[in-house]
Each structure stands twice: as structure tokens, then as C-alpha cells.
Amino acid sequence: MTNLPQVGDFWAPDEHTAPRVVLTVLAWDGGWRVLFEDGGDAVDLPDDSDTGPTPAEQLAEAQALALARIEQRSAVVASAGADTPSGRVKTDAGSRELIIAAHVLALTSINFGATNFQQPFTFVEADGERVEVLDAAGTLGVGIAVAARINTVRQRAEALAAAVKAATSAAAVEAIDITGGWPA
Description:
22% strand, four-stranded antiparallel beta sheet
């Protein structure tokens, strides 16, 4: 089977033509158009069963694209906020770092018997934000709720990635719903 050239390949359509570096391959008029870095004439190829990516190449491309989409969706969902016993908090990367630090400080204060631990948190509400100062127990509640949400997001991403990696065809990969089933 003759495969389509890939970007960066040193390629010629036949043995009588000097090879050139492929710039891109585009779907074109029922076939394929190969453009070259030197800006010279393009080469048009028919779309027949002897030309094109192999099923294994199609599978690898579909898997790579699906895994990238899963990673992107995971990041968006993880950063969408989390409901805690005290209210909804932001969960972007910076907020998660601050919550982890506050959680560790709350555990430390409990371990050392400190009774005056106070940590301000900003909670997201429909009409804006409110700041509330929580004691150690309240801070632990926020940390545990955020950790549970991030863990649920990670588990969903891992399950989807496993399904994508186990797929045996590009069509099977494309049939996997990577947008549904994430925590709200």
C-alpha cells in the first residue's frame, strides 16, 4: 500500500521526479494535494484504496487526538470550581495550591493543639463572591471537598484514556464520548 507523505518527508510521486520536502497534505477535489516547502508545483493524488494512511496510522492519529482532548477537558473541568461544606470555591491551579497549603496548615494546627487557627476563603456565589474566615475544621472540609472533586475528574480522565488506548480502530476511538460523564 502506498501511503500519503507526511509533513517533513523528503518525497517524490514517482522514481522519475526529484524528491522534495513536504510542507502539507490537503484533502483536495476528491483526492489529495501535496504542497512542498520549495513552493514548486503541487502534486495531486487520487483518493483510492492504494493511497492514504493505513488503518494503524488512522488509529494512532485518532488516539493521539482523543487523548489530547481528554487532557484538555480534564483541565477545564478541574478548574471549574468545587462545592464544599462552606460554599463553592475556585479550583484553578493557583487556587488549588492555596487550598492545599491552607489544608496542611490546618492539619498542623490541629496536631499541635492550636485553637486559634483562622483561614480566609473566597466563596463564589451567584451574585459575586464572599469572604469567610474558617477555623481548622472548616478549612479541612474545603480541602477534602476539593481533593475529592479533583480525584473524580482524574478518575474520569483515566477511564477515558484507557478506553481510547484499548480501541482497535479509529472508528472505535471516535465513538467514545469524551465530553460526557464528567463531574458537574
